[in-house]
Queue: 3 jobs
Job 1
Amino acid sequence: MNESLLLEKKVFLFDLDGCIYHGHRASTRAAELIAFLRGENKQIRFITNNSTDNAIDIQDRLLNMGIQVATEEIITATDYIGLYLKERFGEIKVKVVGSIGLKKSIIHHGHVVLDDFSHERAEVIIIGRDVTFCYEKLKMVVNEEKRGAIILGTNMDAAHPGLNGEIVPETGSLIAAIETITSNPIMTFGKPSPYLFTYGMESCDVKASECVMIGDNYDTDVVGAMSLGISSVWLTDVSINALKYEASDTIKKIVKFKSIEDFYMAVR
Amino acid sequence: MNESLLLEKKVFLFDLDGCIYHGHRASTRAAELIAFLRGENKQIRFITNNSTDNAIDIQDRLLNMGIQVATEEIITATDYIGLYLKERFGEIKVKVVGSIGLKKSIIHHGHVVLDDFSHERAEVIIIGRDVTFCYEKLKMVVNEEKRGAIILGTNMDAAHPGLNGEIVPETGSLIAAIETITSNPIMTFGKPSPYLFTYGMESCDVKASECVMIGDNYDTDVVGAMSLGISSVWLTDVSINALKYEASDTIKKIVKFKSIEDFYMAVR
């Protein structure tokens, strides 16, 4: 895609962490960019693999950064999975290895969340980033799977960078511990899987060719968008995997900017 | 190897769980087999991937089954790793994600075991089966690795069968969670790695051709022994992976018995 065609798109899909904000700090010009796009009558969706916070948590965080957003514009793995379960299985009994936010979101969609170590059997077990993950939970999950429970994961990211460059383990590493025992691959909903992108497009009633995805993570944001035929803007400055792809051929097909600020300067 | 040549071997290396005993129950005729081999002046070693119990714990367990064994005859991943560290690095500062037995064994070899969350940096972090494994330990390990600590694992088994067929997560699943984040393979000492076999042979002062390994797990006992040129007796009755290998070519080279009892009946 040519840079000059960016403003012909109807829908702008944004990654959040590493793109619109870094932890609790807004990216430079992020607020101005969102305001500008609204002025141009563009539809906006935020697509995040975050499996700890739900849309309401993130709405609050964005508001603190001066960015006003409707919860409907925020598409999280945390929120989507409850909706998916309802459409696929109806309202069911679930165990959740994950945050309070994830549990709340599952309950919000009408499911029953059983206690982690309840003897009652769950039909589905959901794995998200769980700071209370432990050996006994791992044991519970693999034994529930043996008894027939389906295991689903929010996202497959192994880790994300935290404060001062600290490594923060993510859902993908917990999933790896489980898969190593069960030998069954666990389906995940986050990027690069198509679910969140598709849900975003459907909620805007547009086709892939009318959207552009803007993100810093090549493996999730760019690869996921490309697999659906959505154009990508790749922010290279904060990318944790920029070098790995610098030489690839497909990279020539995507628009690259260093940062949200550079992107804003180019389109405004 | 031909079955009739078994008694020409000088050293009998036995796996423990699934071979000599199942949990806290001795295998039928296990005591008689060991007594018979001692009567034939055979040297005996027990080689186990157990990363929770050390040789003294296992000596007690065997004694309760009527099998008298010297601690020197029991070779565990738990005990070996402290010795390896001493030979390779001298006496060092270590963090241990594992059992009290593993920690005691490391200390026994002269190393300093730091508290799990001590700010003091460890030179090496050892991963064993840890029923107190948790998210914060996972985070500690990957961040210590980032700062330069070497991570070593006792064994790579993903799980083992517990009471009533329950799945008991093992060291290998915890290692998978870590490796998924660090992208660095973790070296392990248990079977099928050569370390414990080699240590067993050296302690008996024999060559591989003078030994036979008896075990139920093809992937660890048989594969490990074969890679060193040690003959194998494979106990198929309790094997968790018998079917997987039934058709393989190498299987024709190894002696198969259903159980320790059948093995005893054939050699006595």
Job 2
Amino acid sequence: MSTFPFQNIAIIGLGLMGGSLALALRARGYTGILQGAGGSASDLGLARSAQGHGRAVFDEICEDPADLPLGAVDLLILAVPPAALSVYFALAAENLPAAAVVTDLASVKANNVAKGEALLGARYQSSHPLIGAEQHGFAAAHADLYRDYRCILCQGSVTDAEVDERLTGFWTALGAEVLHLDVATHDTALAATSHLPHLLAFAYLELLGAEPELALLAGGGLRDFSRIAASDPRLWADILWQNRAAVRARLARLQEGLGRLDGVLAGEDPAPLLASLSRGQQTRSRFRFPSS
Amino acid sequence: MSTFPFQNIAIIGLGLMGGSLALALRARGYTGILQGAGGSASDLGLARSAQGHGRAVFDEICEDPADLPLGAVDLLILAVPPAALSVYFALAAENLPAAAVVTDLASVKANNVAKGEALLGARYQSSHPLIGAEQHGFAAAHADLYRDYRCILCQGSVTDAEVDERLTGFWTALGAEVLHLDVATHDTALAATSHLPHLLAFAYLELLGAEPELALLAGGGLRDFSRIAASDPRLWADILWQNRAAVRARLARLQEGLGRLDGVLAGEDPAPLLASLSRGQQTRSRFRFPSS
């Protein structure tokens, strides 16, 4: 079993990401203290009864994160939507011991990292496990979500080498391959690899909404293409809005590319179409996606 | 076990679609004669050794479809790419008994149905099982591909009620829910539910090709969004080219929609963004996708 560089962990946000993280910790042999707080009544009930490795996954569950006894916590994980992070940075600054480390799992970084660093300094370092699912809540949580994935650790304006080393050790023990990116590079890259695809999937399905007869006429292609459009619209509106500059820049390039392809389709020669599709297929073959 | 209204079936094209169809026929209890032809050396070898229900799946395999003994066949299934259909329509017209039925599985209909009807008349009726996978070849074939799906039967300019009834029975026995569409409606609908999503997935990945560092920075979202961009570029260039009028019309509407969303992202009010994503999510929830 792996060794975790933290032994008293609290997770705020017991939805899919936080709940799965808790289950994965126990599945990978974490034997330290684990507290949890925050979530719907269903999330809290399921978290209370969750078992892993023959024991309760959580040592303590609080409904309200403000009631979490944080005095001995050495790692606080904020598994909440990006829009909700600020309030928990403040809670952490007021209640955590000085040596405790704080991280989050959010998909968009710039605003939040600036706020987190302002309140917590270098003991806050942002994480982004490249994991996703369109489901919500602890009911959908499972330890295998944290399997065969990469986790980005984000370098903001302040970084502490020891905090970075401990978080690297934590994610490695949780099965991740850890990468380091500065905040701006993270947000630009994720606009391309996650945020704009979400916008496209939602936008594509929105356009089909006026033609209900199409609902019977799709196969597995559209199902997978649009899986991410089953995600929480509030979460994704928040992510897209926070990262709108990078998303718009990438969207402009896509619109140009689509315009070019439309020109090909309007012409007489299908060869450039085949060349484009072939390049797309080849590029995809170089991506290292999570296996499930 | 189901009753199949044909008892002497030949499949031309022993790739993923044709191979899976053969396996599914045996899995669903088809006990009649089954011949196959056409495919790579690997496809042919795997088809020759394929077993189902304790017997060889195929009674006879020919390398060259022209060598298939078609004199007693009552259903010929053309499981070849759309660009290859014409030559087999001619083969069928020359060699099949007058009462035999011919169908194909292609994803685009207009040109091909016109050609098929010109050579075969009403004994040809086009099918489109809404099934897909990005893999190729008999090696990827499995009976479960034909599970929990819909199959469109296409009405061209000539339709024979008895042929239609027998093909409806055939697909129903193969587990499909059968729908009927005229050729133009099929191609317009499939441009929206399949062809343009393929173009988008290929085009999106093509745009990422200049940034190899992104290959480590994608999660399950882009993996699923772009799964269809792992498909055969030649097949899809052919489909998109054959249906380019409908694809371009749909693409124009998408580009308008994306332009509107870009305007929202450029503005001060995120509410219309959330409204769009919510409509996209709601529309998706009304789709009936195959379950796997």
Job 3
Amino acid sequence: MLEEMKKRVYEANMDLPRYNLVKFTWGNVSEIDREKGLFVIKPSGVDYDKLKPEDMVVVDLEGNVVEGKYKPSSDTPTHVELYKAFEKIGGIVHTHSTWATSFAQAGKDIICYGTTHADSIYGTIPCSRNLTKEEIESAYELNTGKVIIETFKDRDYVATPAVLCKNHGSFAWGENAKKAVYNAVVLEEVAKMAVLTKIINNEVEEAPKSIQDKHYNRKHGKNAYYGNKVEV
Amino acid sequence: MLEEMKKRVYEANMDLPRYNLVKFTWGNVSEIDREKGLFVIKPSGVDYDKLKPEDMVVVDLEGNVVEGKYKPSSDTPTHVELYKAFEKIGGIVHTHSTWATSFAQAGKDIICYGTTHADSIYGTIPCSRNLTKEEIESAYELNTGKVIIETFKDRDYVATPAVLCKNHGSFAWGENAKKAVYNAVVLEEVAKMAVLTKIINNEVEEAPKSIQDKHYNRKHGKNAYYGNKVEV
Amino acid sequence: MLEEMKKRVYEANMDLPRYNLVKFTWGNVSEIDREKGLFVIKPSGVDYDKLKPEDMVVVDLEGNVVEGKYKPSSDTPTHVELYKAFEKIGGIVHTHSTWATSFAQAGKDIICYGTTHADSIYGTIPCSRNLTKEEIESAYELNTGKVIIETFKDRDYVATPAVLCKNHGSFAWGENAKKAVYNAVVLEEVAKMAVLTKIINNEVEEAPKSIQDKHYNRKHGKNAYYGNKVEV
Amino acid sequence: MLEEMKKRVYEANMDLPRYNLVKFTWGNVSEIDREKGLFVIKPSGVDYDKLKPEDMVVVDLEGNVVEGKYKPSSDTPTHVELYKAFEKIGGIVHTHSTWATSFAQAGKDIICYGTTHADSIYGTIPCSRNLTKEEIESAYELNTGKVIIETFKDRDYVATPAVLCKNHGSFAWGENAKKAVYNAVVLEEVAKMAVLTKIINNEVEEAPKSIQDKHYNRKHGKNAYYGNKVEV
């Protein structure tokens, strides 16, 4: 069932330690088949060096396991909420990558200071509000998803495919699992650069809107002219 | 004697350079057999690239070498004190990992700013007091153990399995050698994140108690629901 | 056509991830044949792990593709402008390397604080002005080149072979592609050291002119005495 | 001639990129045969990936090349001065390692904040004064040596085997080439920790003398009890 997708999701999960985004099992990637209404996600708490494509778990949009010998990631209810609300996305990744997580712990948005950010993520990467005690104690992972969705109620989740979860970590997404991981790498790198930029110049302001627009649009949308027709 | 444990302790010691927690011989891991009252520890000052499982040293709870061609780690008396006082632990690791050691040198506790910390270590990671001149000059390594124990007199050493030794380095522990090393990796990562978090937001406060409790409890205790029944 | 140069440019491009100057496809290197008036450059947006020497694109000094199955790097018009204005250079590299890019985002020059910098790059590494909205919207990459040239109107581009592009990234150059990458490595390292130097001593001033001159001149010019006659 | 020493010096030079202390050719190691009054040093400006044991250059204590097809390191006169003044040392290393060099650029000593430092280097690691314009322009590398010696006129160069050269880089030394590199690794690590320690606690003070003495003496001198009789 969804064997090709399992391989892709497996590879995307293995990219997390490759790109130095996770230690141990501290991350998970999923990808959805919109027609079937099913997504494939990493099992919970299995070491990366033991993980195999066939260990991936198939889950439906109510969070039920449809196939798989393992329990799915404990963050599965967050993935469910995001897939239901963000209908144009095809893949989701959660990590505790060092610099992005430090922004999440600090409770600060990541301002766009340059084109490395603007090339892939449009505008400020928001940090969500804290969950309330009730939200945490009732259905924590589901409510994590709801608070992310709330954070994007006046934002374009396609143009800004990443969020910081207060005191926790980050989620990023994209048209498929691989692109979601790509965005998580961008997120971590621009988080690091944002810290360094502020250290170098404490008075620094957001990059001018015109250069943000230029770089985002030369890679995205109908007038994009960056890249060749080879796979991302 | 204790051949399987020697292999495990050897592997756990080799994990220290793998996880970038030590340079040269600046660390040591041990594991205890509670029934026999014996523990296995790395020899003192032997290069990691020359270390073999059979080089591990067997020591009793009075610090006597029971088997082994080498002297045990010079920190052996600290391990003895900790095994005697912390009866529920099965493995201990000592490192000079960069970020945790910087907290130890700064004489500051590591506050819990997020779930990366709360997932594995409950609450603040304490920094011990300085040893007195007398404690240093009489039985330094033994007194290092005693001061750690004093630091935990009103703390739960199972829930908070790590400590910073003032001006020195860190000790972490767990149910076995491997889990102790896991906790040392967590310690180093949350130390790094804590520095970055404060740089990003100098006014940052401890994460809310509710999210700390949630993350710690979803991985520990009788209501834990994280992970699958595969080895950690 | 230019097969040897394609191999060199390919190798120089592959050095970017090797020296940790780029992630994904975020960089490009070119080298020029001054007699033929043609340069070889990386194709746009092709993954480094799929790149082959024969994928390199040959471009003339009006920016026309002379040979190649792929589109050249989207930054090609910047390379064209620099080759036309800086007649003594033979290779150009563009990256978003972390520390140099953070200076570019901060809009700050990199002061020469020591001999690591002075050995390879004479004096301050300038940060260009922002492009105007009009410059961005009309011919962005060409105007990026023009603004770099403007930044060097009172500077010696041979002695100072690097520039920071405001809110963007960096360009470095040299007598060939390999030397351009060498200078990009120096740029990234001295950017990192400059941040750390200021953290250690916020009052620090530029290194004395005499030591800057000494180190630059012992490696460059007719009285150079550093190195052996083996290839750089 | 001195074939075994050439191999050791070659290996010690290759350790510089292995321990991430240098980029390109920015470092050099030498070792001396005190009976013969000759030392072996890396050739100048030869890439590490092309270096071979037989490329090492043999030099006498007046700085004359006794054997070798290449010019010796341009820093050879500094090595000569140090070997002549510091009669108990057997190996010297020069690097531009990132964190130590940042202290040199900042013109600040490295205070001893903990046992990682005290285990190998006794007390403060001094930063030398600037060379005068005359010292730079006449015999720069020789005067670099003289200024280091001046920096140690009231210090014990055996107990404190490292120095920061203002606006430049560092030298470290030891009983042989390998031990000199070991001390250079320690220097870089304690430089990094010292920066982080100050960031964590801006009021931090030097570690108590008693713990510095304890750690230094448990590894050095006639009452040392650290380590086993296997090679360092």
